[in-house]
From TrEMBL:
S-adenosyl-L-methionine binds at residues 64, 89, 116, 138. Its EC number is 2.1.1.33. Residues 189-226 are annotated as: Disordered. The gene is trmB. This is tRNA (guanine-N(7)-)-methyltransferase. GO terms for molecular function: tRNA (guanine(46)-N7)-methyltransferase activity. It comes from Actinoplanes utahensis. Belongs to the class I-like SAM-binding methyltransferase superfamily. TrmB family. Catalyzes the formation of N(7)-methylguanine at position 46 (m7G46) in tRNA. CDD domains: AdoMet_MTases (cd02440). Residues 190-211 have a biased composition (Basic and acidic residues).
C-alpha cells in the first residue's frame, strides 16, 4: 500500500495532539491514580467497553469529550454522585489536573480516558449513555479544516446512537460560526429533538471565560434522543 493510500485510510482527527509538561502535582496524581481511574484509548481497538465494570457499579454514565483542565468535570461529578462521569482528553496536563482533583475531592464516580474520543465512542454500546457533553471543542475555524470538527453529521449519528432514549446531547461553543453549523447539524439529525432554552446546568469553563472576555457570544445547545 502506498503512503497516499495509507493516509487515506487513517481516521480524520478532530483534535490537535497536545502533550504538555505536567507539573509535579499533576505527575504525582497521574502516577498514583491512573492505574485505578485511567483508561488508554488505542486506535483500532473496538473491544466493547464494560461501563459497569469500569465504574465498579451499575449507574447512568455521562461521557464528556474534551474536558480541558477538568475543572467543570470535577464540579459536575461532585454535585452528581449518582452518575458516573467518563471524560476523554488528549491534553496531558489536563488529564493530570483532573486526576489531582479526583484525589483531592475524593471522587469515586470519575474515570479519565486518554486518546481519540470517537475511537472510544465506538467501543460504547448503543443506548448505554445517559448524556454526552461536548463543551467548547476545537472550532477549526479555517474552512479547509472544517472536516475535522467534531460536531458533523456522521459523528452526531454515532453519539446519538450511544444515548439511551431520552438521553441528552449537550454542546457549547464560543465561536458564532461554529454555533450556527452545530445548530444546523443537530437540528437535521432525525433522532434528536431540541430542548427548550433555559439554564444550561454546567459550570463555567476556562474556554467560556476566555470567549466571553473576547466578546464572543456563547451558544448552548441541548438535544434529547427520541
Amino acid at each position: 500500500m502506498s503512503e497516499t493510500e495509507i493516509a487515506a485510510t487513517r481516521p480524520i482527527r478532530t483534535f490537535h495532539p497536545r502533550r504538555g509538561r505536567m507539573s509535579s502535582r499533576h505527575a504525582d496524581a497521574h502516577a498514583l491514580l491512573w492505574p485505578r481511574y485511567g483508561l488508554t484509548v488505542t486506535d483500532g481497538d473496538r473491544t466493547p467497553l464494560d461501563l459497569a465494570g469500569l465504574f465498579g457499579r451499575e449507574a447512568p454514565v455521562v461521557l464528556e469529550i474534551g474536558f480541558g483542565m477538568g475543572d467543570a468535570t470535577a464540579a459536575m461529578a461532585a454535585a452528581d454522585p449518582q452518575r458516573g462521569y467518563l471524560g476523554v482528553e488528549v491534553h496531558t496536563p489536563g488529564i493530570g489536573n483532573l486526576l489531582a482533583m479526583v484525589g483531592e475531592l475524593g471522587l469515586t464516580n470519575v474515570r479519565v480516558a486518554c486518546g481519540d474520543a470517537m475511537q472510544l465512542v465506538h467501543r460504547i454500546g448503543p443506548g448505554s449513555l445517559d448524556a454526552v457533553h461536548v463543551f467548547f471543542p476545537d472550532p477549526w475555524p479555517k474552512a479547509r479544516h472544517h472536516k475535522r470538527r467534531l460536531i458533523q453529521p456522521g459523528n452526531v449519528a454515532v453519539l446519538r446512537e450511544r444515548l439511551r432514549p431520552g438521553g441528552v446531547l449537550h454542546c457549547a461553543t464560543d465561536w458564532p460560526e461554529y454555533g450556527v453549523a452545530m445548530t444546523e447539524t443537530l437540528d437535521a439529525d432525525p433522532g434528536l429533538r431540541r430542548l427548550p432554552e433555559g439554564p444550561h446546568g454546567r459550570p463555567e469553563t476556562k474556554f467560556e471565560r476566555r470567549g466571553a472576555a473576547a466578546g464572543r457570544p456563547i451558544t448552548d445547545l441541548r438535544y434529547t434522543r427520541r
